[in-house]
Protein backbone atom coordinates (compact mmCIF):
# COMPACT_ATOMS: atom_id res chain seq x y z
CA UNK A 1 0.00 0.00 0.00
CA UNK A 2 1.37 3.43 -0.97
CA UNK A 3 1.75 6.00 1.79
CA UNK A 4 -0.51 8.89 0.59
CA UNK A 5 1.23 11.65 2.60
CA UNK A 6 4.56 10.69 0.99
CA UNK A 7 2.93 10.79 -2.43
CA UNK A 8 1.54 14.26 -1.70
CA UNK A 9 4.92 15.51 -0.53
CA UNK A 10 6.56 14.12 -3.67
CA UNK A 11 3.99 15.86 -5.88
CA UNK A 12 4.42 19.13 -4.00
CA UNK A 13 8.21 18.90 -4.22
CA UNK A 14 8.02 18.22 -7.95
CA UNK A 15 5.65 21.15 -8.47
CA UNK A 16 7.93 23.47 -6.47
CA UNK A 17 10.95 22.40 -8.51
CA UNK A 18 9.08 22.94 -11.78
CA UNK A 19 7.89 26.36 -10.61
CA UNK A 20 11.41 27.30 -9.53
CA UNK A 21 12.82 26.27 -12.91
CA UNK A 22 10.18 28.37 -14.65
CA UNK A 23 11.03 31.40 -12.50
CA UNK A 24 14.77 30.95 -13.09
CA UNK A 25 14.18 30.79 -16.85
CA UNK A 26 12.10 33.96 -16.65
CA UNK A 27 14.78 35.74 -14.65
CA UNK A 28 17.49 34.71 -17.11
CA UNK A 29 15.38 35.99 -19.99
CA UNK A 30 14.81 39.26 -18.14
CA UNK A 31 18.53 39.76 -17.43
CA UNK A 32 19.39 38.90 -21.04
CA UNK A 33 17.08 41.70 -22.16
CA UNK A 34 18.73 44.07 -19.68
CA UNK A 35 22.23 43.28 -20.96
CA UNK A 36 21.07 43.41 -24.59
CA UNK A 37 19.60 46.89 -24.14
CA UNK A 38 22.72 47.99 -22.31
CA UNK A 39 24.99 46.66 -25.07
CA UNK A 40 22.85 48.45 -27.65
CA UNK A 41 23.19 51.72 -25.76
CA UNK A 42 26.96 51.33 -25.49
CA UNK A 43 27.17 50.52 -29.19
CA UNK A 44 25.27 53.69 -30.09
CA UNK A 45 27.38 55.86 -27.78
CA UNK A 46 30.69 54.45 -28.97
CA UNK A 47 29.72 54.53 -32.63
CA UNK A 48 28.47 58.12 -32.48
CA UNK A 49 31.51 59.33 -30.50
CA UNK A 50 33.94 57.77 -32.97
CA UNK A 51 31.91 58.89 -35.96
CA UNK A 52 31.85 62.50 -34.78
CA UNK A 53 35.59 62.40 -34.13
CA UNK A 54 36.20 61.08 -37.64
CA UNK A 55 33.96 63.79 -39.05
CA UNK A 56 36.59 66.36 -38.05
CA UNK A 57 38.45 65.38 -41.22
CA UNK A 58 35.42 65.82 -43.49
CA UNK A 59 33.21 68.35 -41.68
CA UNK A 60 35.38 70.37 -39.28
CA UNK A 61 32.66 73.00 -38.79
CA UNK A 62 30.24 70.32 -37.57
CA UNK A 63 32.84 68.89 -35.22
CA UNK A 64 33.77 72.29 -33.83
CA UNK A 65 30.10 73.11 -33.30
CA UNK A 66 29.56 69.93 -31.30
CA UNK A 67 32.62 70.61 -29.15
CA UNK A 68 31.52 74.21 -28.58
CA UNK A 69 28.06 73.07 -27.46
CA UNK A 70 29.30 70.14 -25.37
CA UNK A 71 27.94 71.57 -22.12
CA UNK A 72 24.50 72.03 -23.67
CA UNK A 73 24.56 68.43 -24.90
CA UNK A 74 25.41 67.18 -21.41
CA UNK A 75 22.58 69.22 -19.88
CA UNK A 76 20.13 67.85 -22.44
CA UNK A 77 21.31 64.30 -21.70
CA UNK A 78 20.87 64.97 -17.97
CA UNK A 79 17.33 66.19 -18.63
CA UNK A 80 16.52 63.01 -20.57
CA UNK A 81 17.91 60.89 -17.72
CA UNK A 82 15.81 62.68 -15.10
CA UNK A 83 12.68 62.45 -17.25
CA UNK A 84 13.18 58.71 -17.70
CA UNK A 85 13.78 58.15 -14.00
CA UNK A 86 10.75 60.09 -12.76
CA UNK A 87 8.26 59.38 -15.55
CA UNK A 88 9.04 55.75 -16.41
CA UNK A 89 5.78 54.63 -14.77
CA UNK A 90 3.68 56.94 -16.96
CA UNK A 91 5.26 56.54 -20.40
CA UNK A 92 4.88 53.75 -22.94
CA UNK A 93 7.51 51.05 -23.44
CA UNK A 94 8.30 52.38 -26.91
CA UNK A 95 8.83 55.86 -25.50
CA UNK A 96 11.16 54.51 -22.81
CA UNK A 97 13.24 52.76 -25.48
CA UNK A 98 13.36 55.90 -27.61
CA UNK A 99 14.51 57.98 -24.64
CA UNK A 100 17.26 55.47 -23.84
CA UNK A 101 18.52 55.46 -27.43
CA UNK A 102 18.30 59.27 -27.50
CA UNK A 103 20.35 59.53 -24.32
CA UNK A 104 22.96 57.14 -25.71
CA UNK A 105 23.14 59.18 -28.94
CA UNK A 106 23.51 62.53 -27.15
CA UNK A 107 26.15 61.14 -24.80
CA UNK A 108 28.04 59.83 -27.82
CA UNK A 109 28.15 63.38 -29.19
CA UNK A 110 29.38 64.66 -25.85
CA UNK A 111 32.09 62.01 -25.48
CA UNK A 112 33.59 62.54 -28.95
CA UNK A 113 36.39 64.78 -27.54
CA UNK A 114 37.99 61.86 -25.67
CA UNK A 115 39.35 60.68 -29.02
CA UNK A 116 41.18 63.99 -29.25
CA UNK A 117 42.62 63.69 -25.74
CA UNK A 118 43.55 59.97 -25.63
CA UNK A 119 45.04 57.61 -28.18
CA UNK A 120 42.77 55.08 -29.84
CA UNK A 121 44.84 52.17 -28.50
CA UNK A 122 44.51 53.31 -24.89
CA UNK A 123 40.77 53.91 -25.30
CA UNK A 124 40.34 50.36 -26.61
CA UNK A 125 42.51 48.98 -23.80
CA UNK A 126 40.51 50.85 -21.17
CA UNK A 127 37.27 49.62 -22.70
CA UNK A 128 38.31 45.97 -22.36
CA UNK A 129 39.55 46.51 -18.80
CA UNK A 130 36.24 48.17 -17.95
CA UNK A 131 34.29 45.36 -19.64
CA UNK A 132 36.17 42.68 -17.68
CA UNK A 133 35.71 44.51 -14.38
CA UNK A 134 32.05 45.17 -15.09
CA UNK A 135 31.36 41.56 -16.07
CA UNK A 136 33.03 40.19 -12.93
CA UNK A 137 31.19 42.54 -10.57
CA UNK A 138 27.84 42.14 -12.31
CA UNK A 139 28.18 38.34 -12.12
CA UNK A 140 28.99 38.59 -8.41
CA UNK A 141 26.00 40.86 -7.83
CA UNK A 142 23.78 38.37 -9.66
CA UNK A 143 24.98 35.25 -7.85
CA UNK A 144 25.82 36.40 -4.32
CA UNK A 145 23.46 35.56 -1.47
CA UNK A 146 24.70 38.54 0.50
CA UNK A 147 22.39 41.52 0.78
CA UNK A 148 24.22 44.45 -0.83
CA UNK A 149 21.72 47.12 0.26
CA UNK A 150 23.97 48.53 2.99
CA UNK A 151 26.95 48.67 0.66
CA UNK A 152 24.82 50.27 -2.05
CA UNK A 153 23.56 53.03 0.26
CA UNK A 154 27.14 53.80 1.29
CA UNK A 155 28.29 53.89 -2.35
CA UNK A 156 25.44 56.20 -3.35
CA UNK A 157 26.47 58.64 -0.62
CA UNK A 158 30.03 58.41 -1.94
CA UNK A 159 28.73 59.13 -5.44
CA UNK A 160 27.11 62.36 -4.29
CA UNK A 161 30.39 63.18 -2.57
CA UNK A 162 32.50 62.87 -5.72
CA UNK A 163 29.91 64.84 -7.73
CA UNK A 164 30.24 67.74 -5.28
CA UNK A 165 34.03 67.37 -5.24
CA UNK A 166 34.10 67.43 -9.04
CA UNK A 167 32.09 70.66 -9.11
CA UNK A 168 34.43 72.25 -6.57
CA UNK A 169 37.47 71.09 -8.54
CA UNK A 170 36.20 72.88 -11.65
CA UNK A 171 37.09 76.11 -9.84
CA UNK A 172 40.14 74.83 -7.95
CA UNK A 173 41.76 72.91 -10.80
CA UNK A 174 43.63 70.70 -8.33
CA UNK A 175 45.38 67.71 -9.92
CA UNK A 176 45.60 66.00 -6.52
CA UNK A 177 41.87 66.31 -5.93
CA UNK A 178 41.22 65.16 -9.48
CA UNK A 179 43.32 62.04 -8.88
CA UNK A 180 41.48 61.30 -5.63
CA UNK A 181 38.12 61.70 -7.38
CA UNK A 182 39.21 59.25 -10.08
CA UNK A 183 40.35 56.65 -7.52
CA UNK A 184 37.14 56.92 -5.53
CA UNK A 185 35.10 56.94 -8.74
CA UNK A 186 36.58 53.63 -9.90
CA UNK A 187 35.84 52.03 -6.52
CA UNK A 188 32.33 53.47 -6.31
CA UNK A 189 31.20 52.48 -9.80
CA UNK A 190 32.77 49.04 -9.47
CA UNK A 191 30.73 48.47 -6.32
CA UNK A 192 27.58 50.03 -7.79
CA UNK A 193 27.75 47.56 -10.69
CA UNK A 194 27.28 44.66 -8.27
CA UNK A 195 24.67 46.50 -6.20
CA UNK A 196 22.61 47.59 -9.20
CA UNK A 197 22.72 44.10 -10.72
CA UNK A 198 21.32 42.61 -7.51
CA UNK A 199 18.70 45.35 -7.35
CA UNK A 200 17.62 44.69 -10.95
CA UNK A 201 17.38 40.99 -10.16
CA UNK A 202 15.22 41.65 -7.10
CA UNK A 203 12.97 44.08 -9.00
CA UNK A 204 12.14 41.25 -11.40
CA UNK A 205 10.15 39.47 -8.71
CA UNK A 206 7.91 42.51 -8.31
CA UNK A 207 7.09 42.77 -12.01
CA UNK A 208 3.33 42.89 -12.61
CA UNK A 209 2.54 42.32 -16.25
CA UNK A 210 4.58 42.34 -19.44
CA UNK A 211 4.45 46.15 -19.81
CA UNK A 212 5.95 46.82 -16.38
CA UNK A 213 8.52 44.06 -16.83
CA UNK A 214 9.62 45.61 -20.15
CA UNK A 215 10.02 49.04 -18.53
CA UNK A 216 12.05 47.52 -15.71
CA UNK A 217 14.38 45.85 -18.19
CA UNK A 218 14.94 49.19 -19.95
CA UNK A 219 15.58 51.07 -16.70
CA UNK A 220 17.83 48.28 -15.49
CA UNK A 221 19.82 48.52 -18.72
CA UNK A 222 20.03 52.30 -18.36
CA UNK A 223 21.36 51.98 -14.81
CA UNK A 224 24.06 49.47 -15.76
CA UNK A 225 24.87 51.51 -18.87
CA UNK A 226 25.60 54.53 -16.66
CA UNK A 227 27.71 52.39 -14.30
CA UNK A 228 29.80 51.14 -17.21
CA UNK A 229 30.25 54.56 -18.85
CA UNK A 230 31.35 56.16 -15.59
CA UNK A 231 33.67 53.28 -14.73
CA UNK A 232 35.22 53.56 -18.19
CA UNK A 233 35.75 57.31 -17.91
CA UNK A 234 37.28 57.06 -14.44
CA UNK A 235 39.65 54.28 -15.53
CA UNK A 236 40.60 56.21 -18.66
CA UNK A 237 42.23 58.83 -16.45
CA UNK A 238 44.59 56.13 -15.12
CA UNK A 239 45.40 53.88 -18.05
CA UNK A 240 44.67 56.26 -20.94
CA UNK A 241 47.65 57.60 -22.91
CA UNK A 242 47.21 61.27 -23.73
CA UNK A 243 48.01 62.50 -27.21
TrEMBL record:
Q: Does the keyword Transmembrane apply?
A: yes
Q: Which InterPro entries match?
A: Bax_inhibitor_1-related
Q: Where are the transmembrane segments?
A: 34-53, 65-86, 98-117, 123-142, 154-172, 178-197, 218-239
User: Which UniProt keywords are listed?
Assistant: Membrane, Transmembrane, Transmembrane helix
Q: How does it sit in the membrane?
A: Multi-pass membrane protein
Task: Give the principal location in a single coarse category.
Answer: membrane
Q: List localization entries.
A: Membrane
**Family designation:** Belongs to the BI1 family.
This one is known as Bax inhibitor-1/YccA family protein
Q: Which organism is it from?
A: Dongia rigui
From the broadest rank down, the organism's phylogenetic lineage runs: Bacteria, Pseudomonadati, Pseudomonadota, Alphaproteobacteria, Rhodospirillales
Amino acid sequence: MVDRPNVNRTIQRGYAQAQSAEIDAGLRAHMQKVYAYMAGGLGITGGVAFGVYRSAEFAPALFEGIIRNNLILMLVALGVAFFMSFRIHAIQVGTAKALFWTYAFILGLGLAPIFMVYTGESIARTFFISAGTFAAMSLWGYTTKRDLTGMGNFLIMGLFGIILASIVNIFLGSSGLGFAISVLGVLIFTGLTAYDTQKIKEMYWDADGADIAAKKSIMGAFTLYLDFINLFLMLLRFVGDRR
